[in-house]
Amino acid sequence: MPRLPPCLAVLTALVFLAASDASAQTLQEGPPPQHRLVYRNLLVARLNPLGLLEEARISYRYRLYRSESPALRDNFVSVGLAPALSPAFGRLGVVVELQPLSILQLWGMYELVGNFGTFRQQQSFPSARSDFSDTEQYARDELPPGDARRPYSNMGSQLTLGATLQLKFGPVVARSLFRLVRPDMPLREGDRVFYDIYYDVLAPNQGWYFVNDADVLYQTGRGLTIGLRWASSHAFYGPSHFSPGEPQDNPNTTHRLGPVVAYTFAERDGARFNSPTVLLMVNWWLVHRYRTGADSSAFFPYLALGFSFSGDLMPVPSPAER
Fold first, then answer.
1. Mean pLDDT of 115-127
2. pTM for the predicted model, two decimal places
3. The domain 6-312 is classified under which CATH number: 3.40.190.10, 3.40.50.2300, 2.40.160.40, 3.40.50.20?
């Protein structure tokens, strides 16, 4: 794994002490009600890699205890559904969340994943050292019908374990979303890994990999948030994910860094339609096997444009009633 520059090492320490998930849906005034039915929705388009995704989450939340302290009051245990759809795949997950403190959320999700065989998905490879560049994937998509290397459809499952951490100092927020993922997909005979377009990872089938998004943000108080995102991934390949006789070092760790800008049009506690937000992210690849010059220019950034909103589906009592 590449050695991180000192500035990134400092940022790592900071965001692991404090980070958050945008789906927290914290009420600003008083503790949350005992029972909540909440949802969030995200539509995002991206470039380098190319992608379009609509994902949602709807959950029932039960408050664990009552507290007026900002560090403690937003606590709950929840269970819900997490559907996601793109032109290349569909997912449906069951998610369980535990938030004992306002700054910490632990969660797990089990998903059924179906790849449609469109937009170059599913693509699988015999080794973690195989070429999975965009050029190779486009070339495979152009192969004649019947060629064993063409993309194909399949259906499998995936387990994700996550931790969301957050800390706020006045208008400055540090936050991180850490995910540990274990896919189980029925791959083509002889293949051991596959390209996961969702995370842009060459995933070890029936193995683990992690993805982390870390942000340091400044909230202006007028709906505008600006900051910096560092995203990273690393796969834990085992001997079964390499061809016999190959070196077993991991060439597929990734890091990218760049600015994030978001604007929230309105916020109202307990509203059915709340916090409509437009997000723009421009990140440059610092470490990537193909996106730092080998297959595409290092000056070509990761671009993402998204729109999100959330809300409460059950009436929320006033702060005094809560």
1. 90
2. 0.88
3. 2.40.160.40
